[in-house]
Specification:
Length: 139
């Protein structure tokens, strides 16, 4: 019984680590269900580690695909008001792009590719090119 209680407390503490502060809109976990992708970001402390790629160190964040280790790494993020300008590179280092992430309200964000390589993610054994503008929602 004590192990069960300790496990439950550990789970609650872990969930608290992902709590999102509305006064820091660019510290968030954002999802797009249509393409099964997410953004895990912290543009303030820039302390996000990509699971399985700890060698890369801490970053402002990354774009990932559920059930897949592939990631687009956010190498820099500059916040101005409700908009952030991002530099991304794929985890192979072969493609890069510039994008903006705009906060529309407390739960809706828009990621827009501005220049560079097209944003692609693996999907069912092929590369899926994502639209230039994607809507994401806070989880």
């Amino acid at each position: 019984m004590n192990k069960l209680i300790a496990f439950a407390v550990g789970c609650m503490v872990s969930l608290g680590a992902f709590a999102q502060n509305p006064s820091e809109p660019f510290r968030a976990y954002l999802i797009n269900k249509e393409f099964d992708i997410f953004l895990h970001i912290n543009f303030y402390e820039q302390d996000v580690t990509v699971p399985g790629q700890e060698l890369l160190g801490q970053l402002p964040g990354y774009l990932g695909k559920n059930h897949n280790p592939f990631a687009w790494l956010i190498t820099s993020a500059e916040v101005k008001g409700h908009k952030a300008t991002l530099q991304l590179v794929n985890d192979y280092g072969s493609e890069d792009l510039t994008a903006t992430l705009t906060r529309k309200n407390d739960s809706i964000y828009v990621l827009k590719q501005e220049s560079g390589s097209p944003l692609k993610v693996p999907s069912k054994g092929k590369w899926l090119k994502l639209p230039k503008t994607l809507t994401l929602q806070r989880k």
